[in-house]
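Researcher: Last one for today. Full complex below.
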Amino acid sequence: MNPQLTNPRADEIDAILKRLPFAQTLGMRCEVLGDEMTAILPFQEKLIGNVAIRALHGGAIASFLELTAMLQVFLISDMPRPPKPINLTIDYLRQGHAKDLYARAYVLKMGRRMASVRAEAWQENRAEPVTALMAHFLVAAD
Amino acid sequence: MNDKPKQQYDIAAIMNENINVMRDVVPWANETRFRVTKVEKGHVFGIQPWEAHLVGDPETGVIHGGVITTFLDNLCGMACTSAMTEMRFVATIDLRIDYMRPAEKGRDIIGEAECYHLTRTVCFTRAWAYHETRDKLIATAAGTFAINKARLGGGSRK
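Model: Here's the assembly. Have a good evening.
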């Protein structure tokens, strides 16, 4: 049995990623287990930002984390559509190597109008995050 | 290593001469298709065109915020290098983005980044994204960058 089927929102996340051109450009996918989601960004040559040291581009990592945070809010809510970002802060902690990148997001507060979300991306070791993101999303339909 | 006195360069002028090369060596910048249009000392301008593969909301056709993050991050980094007197690479320490309003479908986004303070190790920057003027902003950014000590390579760069 596919555990992904235990959360009906999981299928919706898959559908959102499929019809989001930019998510397809990045090449990311998500694995959902209940209310827990891990986003995966398989390495591709086009994600490189510095050819000399073969590091992932900070913008690509930030985009991946923003999408992960957005989808996590969607996953745990009953919103009809993914939320809109208000702002975000990205901390580049370590160099992103030319390898797959993983991310998880935590909704610190789900308010009526706004959600505060933290997300972290890592490669080999989850205790050594490559990049951390803090973001706010608008969740009210206004 | 020899002890020749350090030569001072007009980095902004060198960057202007190599304006297209700068993007070609950054694969992710090629993917998002932005162009750098002008480099002044501590100040860099660019254009992010609307492209179908960058859309982040299929209902409105608006490009994803991540594209603007990439664009402004890159312009800020270039603004740092342009403010120096010696070619150094910088690495983003942190970056904050505020989204004021969505970009319009099909329109170019103008980006502008400024390095307003420089120490021996850190550069402080801010940036703006808009369609027409800075009075009607799509997004703003504030970023700090670490200046890499060692010069990369030293040999010929492809």
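Chain A touches chain B at residues 19-22, 24-26, 45-53, 56-60, 62-64, 66-67, 81, 84-92, 95 (CB under 8 Å). The mean pLDDT of chain A is 93.
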